[in-house]
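agent> Task received from the user: take the single chain below, predict its 3D structure, and emit structure tokens. No templates, no multimer pairing.
agent> Plan: (1) validate residues, (2) run structure prediction, (3) serialize to tokens, (4) report one or two observations.
agent> Step 1 OK, no nonstandard residues flagged.
tool_call: predict_structure(input=
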Amino acid sequence: MNRTIGRALGLSAFFALLPVLGSSATAEVWHRYIMRGQVVEMQGQAVILCVGRAEGAKPGQVLTVVRFIGTPGVSKGAPPVPRRDDVGAVRIDRVIDEHFAEATVVNGQARKFDLVELKAP
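)
tool_result: status=success, residues=121
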């Protein structure tokens, strides 16, 4: 229990100091730990992904679109249990920069905030 409280306090202090570190540090932390792998924008079948050169993104790669859906916990009052659904696939058309890529839905569907991942062959 003490370890859990220590971690919580440490994370709280870290996030409290982010504004002091400057906007570039804040943006890097946000990208690396919160947004990485997300569908950040949709326009029809065109998708902007939070996956770029820093993650090894290359045109032509096909990524699985994953959606996590909370299902009720096993007992009353228990937290929801995430269920993972593969809902589609996207193909990277263009790597925009270190952090972002443009892609097209090639099958299934994608929604803003879904996650993408490269499937091992």
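agent> Step 4: summary for the user.
Residues 2-21 form the longest helix (20 residues).
agent> Done.
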